[in-house]
């Protein structure tokens, strides 16, 4: 299937009526990584091996060489970023070197450590409370940032406005199919607000870099340092702003920078986890020394957000595949997670009760508005 086509076709659409367990039951997965057959554009051979694994194996029968190439690539990007950072921040006597989107999850917590302790940069951690942040993640933020001595800014957009955005994300087709290959519609809406606020704040405070704690499976490994073009940024952010405003109302525009007054050289976007070997177990062990603890109130694929379970379930119902499938498959393929652990993350049904609870929270004010005759 072409990735630009509607992903809700055939057998996938028929699965939409079932619960999480019924949706994932019977779906074939690649026997090398964990890609399910329902991901658009995926093909299996007679051994049930996906084309990505076939390409990796046919191009290099020695998996050790693959790992060497990955290491060489990581080293290259790390050196390039450090040289770039030294050049951009040299002579800056005040202010921050980099603004990090900080969720309190394991990946962004590890990124705080990399930027501040390993790379020696002055970090401002910016957290956006979407109204569904895990209390455990909030506690982790305070403990970790106190321990590392990193400045912190917490932004809490209007809760009714954010809930309206998330409801529309569940109910409507807001984004093209390609945008939903690696994230649910709910998460895409949320990260759009986060990215807008991150860029707006960095521009207002003249911070030369913005960083995200995205795992190697979430970001393109050859685009881990991005210099945005002002004209292109104006176009892409304008389209995103219009989508959010159409979905939830004009209040969404306040979270975006003034697109007519963008600086000639916008902040560079950096994905530091692409510079290092990604090992989830080692990451959790390291950040545990800074006071980070595994939250008990999130689903298996999130360490910061209660809404994630609902977004995952609705994505499965609508499209027939888990929004984390491509990310986790990439990590498994790189040898940084076992296939068994990857399958566990994709097939775990523990988030079902949480998804029900969050859905009730999300629609509570809409139900109240219907009773009182006011707008939600």
Automatic annotation (TrEMBL):
Coiled-coil ranges (or none): none
Annotated InterPro entries: Ni-pincer_cofactor_biosynth (IPR052188), Rossmann-like_a/b/a_fold (IPR014729)
PANTHER family the UniProt entry points to: ATPASE, PP-LOOP SUPERFAMILY-RELATED, EXSB FAMILY PROTEIN
Full protein name: PP-loop domain protein
Record organism: Desulfocurvibacter africanus subsp. africanus str. Walvis Bay
């Amino acid at each position: 299937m072409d990735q630009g086509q509607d992903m809700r076709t055939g057998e996938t659409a028929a699965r939409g009526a079932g619960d999480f367990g019924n949706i994932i039951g019977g779906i074939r997965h690649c026997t090398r990584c964990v890609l399910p057959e329902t991901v658009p554009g995926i093909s299996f051979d007679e051994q049930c091996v996906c084309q990505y694994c076939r390409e990796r194996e046919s191009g290099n029968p020695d998996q050790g060489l693959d790992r060497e190439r990955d290491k060489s690539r990581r080293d290259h990007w790390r050196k390039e970023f450090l040289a770039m950072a030294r050049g951009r921040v040299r002579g800056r006597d005040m202010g921050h070197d980099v603004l990090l989107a900080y969720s309190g999850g394991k990946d962004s917590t590890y990124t705080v450590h990399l930027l501040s302790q390993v790379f020696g940069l002055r970090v401002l951690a910016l957290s956006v409370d979407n109204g569904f942040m895990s209390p455990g993640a909030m506690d982790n933020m305070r403990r970790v940032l106190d321990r590392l001595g990193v400045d912190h800014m917490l932004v809490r957009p209007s809760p009714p406005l954010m809930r309206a955005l998330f409801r529309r994300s569940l109910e409507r087709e807001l984004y093209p199919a390609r945008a939903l290959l690696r994230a649910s519609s709910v998460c895409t809406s949320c990260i759009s607000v986060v990215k807008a606020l991150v860029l707006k704040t960095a521009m207002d405070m003249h911070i030369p870099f913005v960083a995200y704690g995205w795992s190697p499976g979430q970001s393109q490994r050859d685009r881990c340092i991005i210099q945005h073009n002002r004209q292109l940024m104006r176009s892409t952010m304008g389209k995103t702003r219009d989508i959010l405003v159409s979905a939830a109302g004009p209040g969404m525009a306040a979270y975006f920078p003034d697109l007519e007054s963008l600086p000639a050289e916008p902040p560079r976007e950096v994905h530091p986890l692409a510079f290092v070997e990604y090992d989830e177990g080692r990451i959790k062990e390291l950040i545990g020394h800074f006071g980070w603890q595994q939250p008990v109130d999130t689903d298996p694929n999130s360490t910061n957000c209660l809404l994630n379970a609902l977004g995952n379930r609705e994505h499965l119902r609508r499209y027939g595949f888990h929004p984390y499938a491509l990310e986790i498959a990439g990590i498994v393929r790189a040898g940084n997670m076992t296939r068994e652990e990857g399958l566990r993350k994709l097939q775990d049904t523990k988030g079902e009760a949480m998804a029900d609870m969050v859905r009730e929270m999300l629609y509570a004010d809409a139900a109240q508005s219907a009773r009182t005759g006011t707008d939600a």
